[in-house]
Amino acid sequence: MGSTLTTIGFFLALFGAALICYAFALQWGSRWAGASNVTFRRALGLLVAMAVARTVLKIAYQVALSPTVSTGTAAQLGLLAIQLFVICAIVSRGFRLTMGRAFLACLPMLVPAIVFSSLMLFVVRPYVLEAYVIARTPWRRRLWAHM
Fold first, then answer.
1. Residue 66 DSSP symbol
2. Is 61 helix (H, G, I), strand (E, B) or coil?
């Protein structure tokens, strides 16, 4: 039970750190793009609006496609383009920027995305999600024989 709570606490701390980093990146990017009414609270609110919009888009995407239709690369790229447009529209509306400047304001958010993705890939996955020990020797031999 303690190990599970530690893992949940770790993921919540990582999520909070990512949210703060994304908000600072959006705030910095908006200032860089020339927005005048930039606050941390507004950037955080826009991040929540972006998350809600992306979730709604993903649900609509899943509902619109029937289970028999394969979701290929073209469909995934189309969803990504729509999400990018919606995110830029939210930033444009929230900071009163043009769509081009809103896109520039979103570019610094790639830095925390790359940092936290690599953290999840190289640290969390090997040490938290895939960390298990085979207790007894007979099972160890059987399991390693099948790998």
1. -
2. helix
